[in-house]
Amino acid sequence: MPRGPSPFKEADVRRALRGAVAAGVEIARVEIDARNGNIVILTPRDPGTPVAPYDLWKAKSDAR
């Protein structure tokens, strides 16, 4: 059974990544929704954003 046309192409991913890098965005991860063709570029956590108390505790306990 043949597949339908792909909702995104490798060139689309490359174009999105190149645009993010050109804009000075640091890339942590890329997520692609193959069904819808959505390409999501995730950046590292901004140090100025508030951190939940659990995350602080977890970071300290993992540092051992």
Model description:
- The chain has helices at 10-22, 53-62; strands at residues 29-33, 38-42.
- Helix content is 36%, strand content 16%.
- The longest helix is centred in the first third of the chain and has 13 residues, at 10-22.
- The protein has a two-stranded antiparallel sheet with strand order 1-2.
- Strand 1 (29-33) and strand 2 form a beta hairpin.
- The protein has one domain (10-62).
- With 64 residues, the protein is an alpha+beta fold.
How large is the radius of gyration?
Answer: 17 Å
The chain-level mean pLDDT equals 82
Q: How much of the polypeptide forms β-strand, as a percent range?
A: 15-25%
Helix content: 25-40%
List the strand order in the largest sheet. Answer: 1-2
Largest sheet: 2 strands, antiparallel
Q: Tags for this entry?
A:
single chain, 64 residues, alpha+beta, two-stranded antiparallel ribbon, 2 helices, 36% helix, 16% strand
Secondary structure elements and pairings:
Blueprint: H1 10-22, E1 29-33, E2 38-42, H2 53-62
In short:
The chain contains two helices and two strands; from the N terminus they run αββα. With 64 residues, the protein is α+β, with helices and mostly antiparallel strands.
